[in-house]
């Protein structure tokens, strides 16, 4: 199989390549093409991948290019992992929002809307290029906001675009371990919602739902990351375990204050950190293995500081060693490719078309739920209806996503204002108008809004 990674100079690409190196099954990926507009990033990541492949027999061949059509030709799978505006753009998203007293996180609230407004037009154009150049390829979308971008690309490519995220995987694995699962990957996770807006409502081991046992044990609840973040009392009240990103909703005031008081926004921290990494990895004449060592150090720091402001606001302390493990989105991607290419049926939590899964949303809405995957793609399984508190959030945020899609299509400033104003975490139409003005100044990529 041939795999193309759009955004191939991105920091997380070595996670994907590491998973490919471990796959020795027949029909595995044998050729990887990295596409990125930044040649320095491509060179740096190519060096990391070369270090990873050292001593590995039959490692997938890696080529790098900044020619999009060349990258797409003959691809069986395309990973879309782009970041429109780079980390400078993310830092701007955060800064503009926090100045208005609202959240600027890259996928949640005002920051997520701004990121979506500049990413959706690019994602749509990529989908059109894929349709022309590699019409038989399957697209696996990593690009955030993942649900929104997946829905945008499906307008052009239909069900051949599938979105993935590591948050539900990591959450399910942590719960399963607390419950004593020997093989957490074998647990059935009853998870439902939108990307970065979902809840674990059950976790089945050996056919039995063990989540009620966990919810009855305060000590066990607060022994893993989400339990410490939300607190046992709130989780018992919900009767479910929320995705970590719901901390921005349930404790919004505390989260905004923590981000306003931080020395540096998350985007600015990652921007400075990755600049240092790329400069080191791209340095000529370095010893073998140096690029991979720099990447490993940078990734360890990145994982240790993940959602640090939220943990500080919750009094949850530092991340524990077990929480530092990668969420596993590269393993989800590998399992997804295997299931489609080899018809190795799998059950995975994915971002797919709703069809009739959630009655409160229309059939085209992209949702995040367990899916059965085979050679014909991903098929969402039936789930129980959402409780009313979840219905409110899910329908409100999906309405916002639809306004973002409409604004990106029409270029209407009024529609963009509506997207911001309707979001549960933006508390004023006047604030929404100022946000659009602020982002228009900070992002040349939003000049299309009139």
Molecular structure report:
With 450 residues, the protein is of the alpha/beta class. 51% of the residues lie in helices and 15% in strands. It contains 20 helices and 13 strands. It has helices at 13-22, 39-53, 68-72, 86-99, 109-133, 146-157, 167-178, 211-215, 218-221, 225-230, 232-238, 247-250, 252-261, 266-281, 290-304, 308-314, 329-342, 388-410, 413-422, 429-442, and strands at 2-6, 31-35, 61-65, 77-80, 138-141, 161-163, 188-194, 197-205, 208-209, 241-242, 346-353, 366-374, 377-380. The strands form three sheets. The protein has a six-stranded parallel sheet with strand order 3-2-1-4-5-6, with helices on both faces. Strands 7, 8, 9 and 10 form a four-stranded antiparallel sheet that branches. Strand 12 (366-374) and strand 13 (377-380) form a beta hairpin. Helix 4 packs antiparallel against helix 5 and helix 5 (109-133) crosses helix 18. The radius of gyration is 21 Å and the shape is globular. The termini are far apart. The mean pLDDT is 94.
């Amino acid at each position: 199989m041939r795999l193309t990674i759009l955004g191939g100079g991105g920091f997380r690409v070595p996670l994907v390549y590491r998973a490919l190196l471990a796959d020795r099954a027949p029909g595995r990926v044998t050729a990887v093409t990295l596409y990125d507009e930044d040649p320095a990033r491509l060179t740096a990541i190519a060096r990391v991948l070369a270090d990873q492949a050292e001593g590995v027999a039959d490692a997938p061949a890696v080529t790098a290019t900044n020619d999009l059509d060349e990258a797409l030709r003959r691809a069986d799978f395309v990973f879309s992992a782009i970041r429109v505006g780079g980390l400078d753009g993310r830092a701007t998203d955060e800064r503009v929002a926090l100045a208005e007293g609202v959240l600027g996180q890259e996928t949640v609230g005002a920051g997520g809307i701004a990121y979506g407004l500049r990413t959706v037009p690019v994602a749509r154009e990529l989908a059109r290029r894929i349709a022309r150049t590699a019409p038989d390829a399957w697209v696996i979308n990593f690009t955030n906001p993942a649900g929104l971008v997946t829905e945008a690309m499906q307008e052009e490519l239909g069900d051949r675009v599938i979105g993935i995220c590591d948050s539900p995987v990591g959450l399910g694995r942590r719960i399963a371990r607390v419950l004593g699962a020997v093989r957490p990957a074998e647990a059935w996770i009853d998870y439902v919602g939108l990307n970065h807006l979902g809840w674990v409502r059950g976790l089945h081991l050996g056919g039995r739902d063990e989540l009620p046992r966990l919810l009855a044990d305060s000590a066990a609840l607060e022994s893993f990351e989400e339990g410490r973040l939300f607190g046992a009392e709130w989780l018992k009240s919900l009767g479910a375990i929320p995705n970590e990103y719901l901390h921005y909703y349930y404790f919004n005031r505390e989260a905004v204050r923590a981000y306003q008081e931080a020395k540096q926004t998350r985007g600015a921290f990652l921007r400075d950190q990755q600049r240092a990494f790329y400069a080191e990895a791209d340095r000529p004449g370095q010893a073998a293995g140096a690029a991979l060592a720099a990447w490993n150090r940078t990734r360890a720091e990145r994982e240790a500081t993940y959602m640090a402001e939220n943990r500080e606001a919750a009094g949850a302390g530092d991340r524990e060693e077990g929480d530092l493990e990668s969420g596993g989105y590269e393993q989800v991607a590998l399992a997804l490719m295997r299931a489609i290419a080899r018809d190795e049926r799998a059950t995975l939590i994915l971002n797919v078309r709703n069809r009739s899964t959630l009655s409160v949303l229309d059939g085209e809405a992209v949702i995040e739920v367990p899916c059965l995957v085979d050679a014909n793609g991903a098929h969402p399984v039936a789930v129980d209806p959402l409780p009313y508190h979840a219905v409110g959030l899910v329908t409100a945020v999906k309405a916002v996503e639809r306004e973002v899609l409409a604004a990106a299509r029409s270029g209407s400033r009024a529609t963009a204002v509506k997207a911001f104003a309707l979001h549960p975490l933006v508390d004023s139409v006047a604030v929404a108008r100022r946000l659009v003005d602020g982002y228009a100044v900070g992002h040349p990529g939003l000049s299309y809004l009139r």
